[in-house]
C-alpha cells in the first residue's frame, strides 16, 4: 500500500489508474516510462482544468513545474517523451 505521506506516488497511481497502487518510486518510474503518452495526457487535463493556465506558454510552464515535482521518478528520456506528448496535445489550443 502507498504510504499516505508520499503524494507523488498517490498522484501517479491516480493519473495512471494503477492497480495495485505504486508502492515505490521505482514502480512509479517504470509505470510512467511504459505509458508516457497517457501520463502526459493526465498532465494536460490538469493544465486544462487549472485557472492559472491561460495560454500555450503557461501550459508549458505548468508542465515543467509538474515534471520538477515528479523529479526522480522521471528519467531524462521519459521527461522528453512527456514533453513531446504534451506538446502534441497543445496543438489543439493553437
Structural commentary:
It is a single chain. This protein has 94 residues and is mainly α. The protein has one domain. It has helices at 7-16, 25-34, 36-49, 56-70, 76-90. Helix 3 (36-49) crosses helix 4, helix 3 packs across helix 5 (76-90) and helix 4 (56-70) packs antiparallel against helix 5 (76-90). The model has no long low-confidence stretch (mean pLDDT 92).
Q: What count of domains describes the coordinates?
A: 1
Shape: globular
- Low-pLDDT residue intervals, each spanning 5 or more residues: none
Cα radius of gyration in angstroms: 13 Å
User: On the 0-100 scale, what is the average pLDDT?
Assistant: 92
Portion of residues in beta strands equals: under 5%
Distance between the termini: 41 Å
SS-derived structural category: mainly alpha
Helical residues, percent: 55-70%
What is the overall number of helices? Answer: 5
Q: Could you give the order of the helices and strands?
A: HHHHH
Number of strands: 0
Question: How would a textbook summarize the main sheet?
Answer: none
Summarize the structure.
The protein is mainly α and 94 residues long. The chain has five helices and no strands.
Give me some keywords for this one.
mainly alpha; globular; 68% helix; 94 residues
SSE order and pairing:
Elements: H1 7-16, H2 25-34, H3 36-49, H4 56-70, H5 76-90
Helix pairs in contact: 1-2, 3-4, 3-5, 4-5
Amino acid at each position: 500500500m502507498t504510504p499516505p505521506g508520499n503524494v507523488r506516488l498517490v498522484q501517479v497511481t491516480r493519473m495512471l489508474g494503477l492497480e495495485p497502487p505504486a508502492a515505490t518510486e521505482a514502480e512509479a518510474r517504470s509505470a510512467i516510462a511504459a505509458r508516457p503518452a497517457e501520463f502526459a495526457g493526465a498532465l494536460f487535463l490538469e493544465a486544462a482544468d487549472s485557472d492559472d493556465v491561460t495560454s500555450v506558454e503557461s501550459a508549458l510552464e505548468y508542465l515543467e513545474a509538474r515534471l520538477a515535482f515528479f523529479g526522480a521518478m522521471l528519467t531524462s528520456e521519459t521527461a522528453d517523451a512527456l514533453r513531446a506528448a504534451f506538446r502534441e496535445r497543445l496543438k489543439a489550443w493553437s
